[in-house]
User: Fold this.
Amino acid sequence: MSEHSPYPDVAFDHVSIAYQDRIALEDVTFSIARGSFWGIIGPNGSGKTTLVRAIIGLVGARSGRIRTFGVDPRDLREQRTLIGYVPQSAEVDFSFPISVSDAVLMGGYGKAGRFRRLSRELRDATAAALERVQISDLAARQIGELSGGQRQRMLIARALVLHPRLLILDEPTAALDHTSSEGLYEWLHGLNETDGTTILLVSHDIGVVSKWVDSVACLNTRLVAHGRPSDILTTSALESMYGCGAVIFQHGHIPHMVVDADPHTHSGDGA
Assistant:
């Protein structure tokens, strides 16, 4: 694919997706330009995972059109190596007896082929990815010995081995404390700024989304709103996702959300 492709990296055009009779996404339209940093927010069951699965070609649309790098993602061939995917840590079996270096190396199998002799280039790329996320000193350690922050950095290194054009992260800070989360998001922001990597971040953390991303999509089966965080992270958008008890509070430039158990008792006080 040309380095100067005229297509957005991701485009949904009136997309609806269903599992049997259950609608997971309904009439979703948006596009992600090359080099942008997007956040996807929404409650559990809102369709965030389905959206990610559709982008990488694991599910197709019941209606509408999906394009990743300008083609149907189910037809991606060599372009599939341009996508780096970082799953939630809970989806990974960290009891498997493998070193950090070998786990990261496996991220290159899509290009090297599972049964081909691993090239020196791929091994060098593995070392570079470990250095990029600052865990080169952990290369020989067993993955089960890593802390939560180290695990996330390893998964990101694994996704970076093939120098992806699009990096997708699913709740990357779910197991991290606040300081580790801030450090990870700051690092991702730098990756986006310096390398021009398109980043799609699925997160529940509205404050972090507002601080770091260029654009945010509020999802609750339908696309409630999307655009610049300062423009669309409003109480009305959050109410459409989380119910009428959702209230947004502004502390400086960073919004925070509170959801009342009983919206009728809300008094307007801060959290």
User: Anything to note?
Assistant: The chain has two domains: 10-233, 234-271. The chain has nine helices and eleven strands. The CA atoms of residues 211 and 254 lie 6 Å apart. Confidence is low (pLDDT under 50) at residues 244-271.
